[in-house]
Design goal:
56 residues; alpha+beta; two-stranded antiparallel ribbon; two-stranded antiparallel sheet; 25% strand
Length: 56
């Protein structure tokens, strides 16, 4: 199983089964749910900031 960390909430996401991903600045980000994906799309820089602390 390949996993990535959801940049919004910090949960582990199984990239082999999830279809919730988004490309931003040449990188692919994976999300636990549609809500996190939409939050990220609205303001990716907020969630990629070194100061961001995931909500979980």
């Amino acid at each position: 199983m390949a996993t990535e960390i959801d940049p919004v909430c910090g949960m582990e996401v199984d990239t082999t089964t999830s279809q919730l991903s988004h490309e931003h600045d040449g990188s692919t980000y994976w999300f636990c749910g549609k809500g996190c994906l939409l939050e990220f799309k609205d303001d990716p820089d907020k969630y990629l900031s070194p100061d961001h602390r995931p909500s979980m």
